[in-house]
């Protein structure tokens, strides 16, 4: 499997067609087709855009899945982390001690 194959797999996992997925990434359907075919290599702008749409970009690039933060936690802790990650950004307040979310 190459980057194009994995990009297509992620698009299909998200239930999107090439035209809509390309629009989300700021490219044409033809460009999306060429990425998936392996005729074009995606740039950082494209990868950032598809990451924002829920694509596992590490998987697209390397073939290795991103491990969810909640993996390996006790069920109750994992549920808390998942709930936090699914909150709207405005609801997630920065940690005043570290300055991070």
From TrEMBL:
SUPFAM superfamilies named among the record's database cross-references: lambda repressor-like DNA-binding domains
InterPro entries, alphabetized: Cro/C1-type_HTH, Lambda_DNA-bd_dom_sf
Biased composition (Basic and acidic residues): 1-14
Molecular function GO terms recorded: DNA binding
Region feature (Disordered): 1-21
Protein's recorded name: XRE family transcriptional regulator
Organism (species): Cellvibrio polysaccharolyticus
Lineage per the UniProt record: Bacteria, Pseudomonadati, Pseudomonadota, Gammaproteobacteria, Cellvibrionales
């Amino acid at each position: 499997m190459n980057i194009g194959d994995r990009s297509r797999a992620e698009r299909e996992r998200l239930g999107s067609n090439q035209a809509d997925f390309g629009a989300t990434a700021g490219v044409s359907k033809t460009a999306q087709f060429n990425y998936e075919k392996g005729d074009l290599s995606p740039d950082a702008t494209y990868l950032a855009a598809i990451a924002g749409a829920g694509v596992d970009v590490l998987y697209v690039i390397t073939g290795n899945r991103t491990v969810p933060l909640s993996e390996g936690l006790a069920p109750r802790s994992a549920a808390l982390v998942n709930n936090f990650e699914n909150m709207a950004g405005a609801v997630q307040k920065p940690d005043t001690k570290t300055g991070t979310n």
